[in-house]
Amino acid sequence: MQMNPNYTDKPIDEFLFRFYRIKSRYSRKIIRELLLHRKNAEIYSRVLRKIFSQYHDIHIGMYSYGAFTLSIPAGTVVGRYSSVPRNLLVLRGNPPITHKSCHPFFFNPTFHYVDKFLITRSRLTIGNDAYVGMEVTILSSVSKIGDGGQLKIGAAEPGRGLLPGIHQARRFESKPIRGREFV
After folding, report:
1. Domain contains 26
2. Within a domain: residue 109?
3. Average pLDDT in the 112-122 region?
4. Could you tell me the pTM of the whole model?
């Protein structure tokens, strides 16, 4: 379903998608900016979603906007019709408190002092029709923001793994259609 008859992905977009596989951060940045510069591209572009899904492991549902930034960590899933600010801060792990120090030398293999990454990274799922306000910080203990969830401006959400959606009113019925249930 194409909600905006004035927006379609252009033939050049498929070329840009193929060209994006070249691992140059400068060319990739230019391609992202070219695609995002078009009016309503964040809301309607399938090519942007394909690029972020395939190359950055960030899965963004149709008609969601704001999540097309590399400051969102890999493995994040954003549902449909969600609003996410570009300055969202997602903390995916805490330094271990049982080690000699909290310095990355003692848990990050990049520094060549340990062989494997010694902290667990959490993944974040933002549900459908969720709203995340400006300058929100989501801590590593939060793994899911439910459908319809709202995080207000400047919130720091420690959570207990799940932030449920806020149901202010039921706008649609949740019925099975041909054996599939909408969640």
Report:
1. yes
2. yes
3. 84
4. 0.76
